[in-house]
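Repro:
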Amino acid sequence: MRIKRETVLSIALVTPSILAIAVFVYGFIGWTARVSLSQWKGLLPDYTWAGLENYKFLFSDPRFHIDIRNTLTFTVIFVAGCLLLGLALAILLDQNIKGEGIFRSLYLFPMAISFIVTGVVWRWLMNPATGTRISGLNLLFNNLGLDFLISKWHTTPQWGIAFIAIPAIWQMSGYTMALYLGGLRAIPVELREAAQVDGANEIQIYRHIILPLLKPITLSAMIILGHISLKVFDLIVAVAGKQLPLDVPAIYMWQVTFDGYFFGRGAAIGILLLLSVAVLIIPYLIYTLRTEAEL
């Protein structure tokens, strides 16, 4: 009788959360999918069936092609930069240096602020102005005699989106460092000692022992960072505003939906963003569950 009462109580406690998720997550996803298949344009709802017309329009739209290219460029540079810098910082901190806690906190601090704050700060740091209006990093390079490093930053044709990845790397590399540092501390010291006894140097130890053991950490970091990059919005708007050369699907969705009132088309972009994130997350979840089951 007591077990039955505890079972009922447990179900009663989780039911509100299940209902909230069912309505406000999966229910709204379903509603967005339905809107994406409609002709809704304007403030008044219009659920007239349009099929895949909104999706066909997007894939034939030159602006959406620019969005995809910019997203891929941003993702590759952002993920690679965070992984490399985070791993380098983790290896340095793993050397038992003095003041490790202070350095670890400094590296993690950028993660505590939002992309909006990061964008506002880096908008000044990456000010493309020259001459009497020079400021930020360009002014620093000028004072140090490193004029060859002075750049137009995000206003550079073709590669402006690549420079937008710099503040994103600055913010999230500390998080990647924390993941790698945890992985490094979990590796048994006996493995390193055994390799040293066999005559392996530090480079060989990291190449053949440490880095292979860190592959699960790398995979997790790539999934997390990749999903962040696919839906980036606030950082770009804070740094450069809404410009076509720096356009991404999230900005396109905002303008189509709330500036142009093409709710059907905006919902289609939202569904495509959801599917792109799912392509990353679902295989990772399946891999994780299978790994845990084998253990």
